Amino acid sequence: MMKTKTKTKTKMKEPEDSHPGGISRRSFARGAALVGAAAALLPAHLLAQAQSPASTAAAGTEKPPEPSPKLSPASQAEAEAKIQNIMRKYGSRLSDAEKVDVRKSVLSQQESIDKLRAFPLENWDEPALVLRAVLQGK
Amino acid sequence: MLNDETLYLTVEELGEQLRTRKISAVELTESYLARSERLGPRLHAYATLTRELALKEAHAAEQEIAAGKYRGPLHGMPYAAKDLLAVRGYPTTWGAAPYAEQQFDYDATVIQKLRHAGAILIGKAAMIELAGGMGYRFASASHTGAARNPWNEACWTCGSSSGSAAIVSSAMAAFAIGSETWGSIVCPSAFTGISGLRPTYGRVSRHGAMSLAYSMDKLGPMARSAHDCGIILAAIAGHDPLDPASLPAQPTIFNSSSAHAPAQASRVRTAKKTLRVGWLTNAWKDLSPGVEKRIQEAQKVVRGFAANFAEATLPEGPWEAAAGLVISAECASAFDKLIESGGVAKLADPEGRLGGYINQQIAATDLVRANRLRRVLQHKMAELFGQFDVLATASLPVTASKLEANLDDELSFPDPLGGIGNFCGLPAISVPCGLADDQLPVGLQFVAPPLGETAVLQAAQEFQHTTRWHKLRPNV
């Protein structure tokens, strides 16, 4: 969503991908790469969350994390596995606030991945990859 | 020192004065250097000034021109290059603290080509760290601080070619080189009221440039007119065996295939109306009122020069998500050492410190699927471009954001055209189309099919033939 507080005058058709939690030009690459409005978090809010016992639980491993309402149980489980993987590998480098951020970003990224997976493709739809054989001296 | 009137001239105009020796390359270079030393620190526009190199190149250019060895419209022309381009003997920081001391012992191909054309490098332009590849939340996501917008120094220039935009907009150089993976030429150009061209993927060699996303990175010119963009593109385009994505050697489609050609050669305006223009109705969900007003006025101008004008719609699908996933995965690979070493902790932005960890979790099958969607999208866009030579819409739905803004709040909106255009490697240009009520520039964008630089340049030049918005100057 364009988060300006202006009144809308245009009558533009909204692309399928352009939902209120759509992807900004920078958020493409933020950790979530694909984070939408739902993941936008003010630092103060983030700090408050990080300082609360609940946030530690959400970021860490001690209590069951809150599921994302937009994810199926299977996607939720997949996202949780990714979070655990990040924590296992890099958790010692992260503050509690960063762990909260990681969690939100992974969940949001998972929503975008689900959208990709929902798009119908056929077996013969090849990826747009180009491999050119390299010959010595050419 | 040359006056502001001269320093704000276009490359075309300056080139003619250099060719006819009304001004000298040394005088012009010293004037831009002095202005850069005065304004650059205030606007956080530069990573490094290359004074010694610039003056050496300027004296050489001046001697050659005096001796009748005129190389073309860029001969003696001072410019800045985004600090992701390698320049021998100077730091190339990629805008990021972990690379603050980095140096390369060679020049990027673009730098070499511009040197061959006689252009003079006066500095390395500031940029968002790692071109924003790890994500960022604040304009201050740069080793050199937040770039200030010459139109309102409380506002940002946008990123990641943030310094390049500030430099051109405030006449600290005649032009600059930027890069775009998603929005990094179009957005800064729109926010600062300049003309910026994103070439077709593979059109300009990226050898010696930082890689963010191998399948989406492009380098392009940022200047004070569309015509200038054509001149510069002519000098930097072309096959390079050192860039695996470089397009094969072929006759260039846009005019002025050589930087040695007269400036007029890059004029692609025609006496007869030829352009079929598709006006996009679903590129932006909302336009801010100030932007909408200017875009409606711009639409009338475009209607005036179009041979055919009709509404157009972008294909629907999860293209932004797919493009974002590809960028994220490629970036995580490009910076795997930085991520795994923990060096990302030295990045300025809180989001950038985490992005790599998250993006390493992207599954290979999802990356392949995203690239399968890319091919589907390419075919859909080819169908659309069967009806239109160019698509047009606002470059951005808003004007420049505040320097201290949380960009997740202030600059977060769906951008399907940016996603599609960059995912498919389509050329685009942003040209200024006036000021909004807040007195900040508004940009108009033209996008064409691959190798369609001629079309976007033609549309932009037609627009600038009718309007004078590109002649407006900020009060710096």
Explain how this protein is built.
The complex is a heterodimer of chains A (138) and B (476). Chain A has 4 helices and no strands. Chain A has 138 residues and is mainly α. In chain A, helix 1 crosses helix 4 and helix 3 packs across helix 4. Chain B is built from 16 helices and 13 strands. In chain B, a hairpin with a 5-residue loop joins strand 12 and strand 13. The longest helix of chain B has 22 residues. About 2% of the residues of chain B have low confidence. The interface between A and B is large, with 66 and 82 residues.
Number of distinct beta strands of chain A: 0
- Return the average pLDDT of chain B rounded to an integer: 95
Radius of gyration from the alpha-carbon trace of chain B, in angstroms = 20 Å
| Overall pLDDT of chain A | 65
Enumerate how many helices of chain B there are, as a single number. 16
Question: Can you tell me the residue ranges of chain A where pLDDT is under 50 for at least 5 consecutive residues?
Answer: 1-62
Total DSSP E strands of chain B: 13
Number of continuous helical runs of chain A: 4
Ends distance of chain A: 49 Å
Instruction: Categorize the overall geometry of chain B.
Output: globular
SSE order of chain A, as H and E? Answer: HHHH
Biggest sheet of chain B: strands side by side, in what order?
1-3-2-6-8-7-12-13-11-9-10
Biggest interface reads: A-B, 66 and 82 residues
Shape of chain A: flat
Give helix % range of chain B. 25-40%
By oligomeric state, this entry counts as heterodimer
Q: Which class of secondary structure composition applies to the elements of chain A? A: mainly alpha
Helical proportion of chain A? 40-55%
Structural Rg of chain A? 19 Å
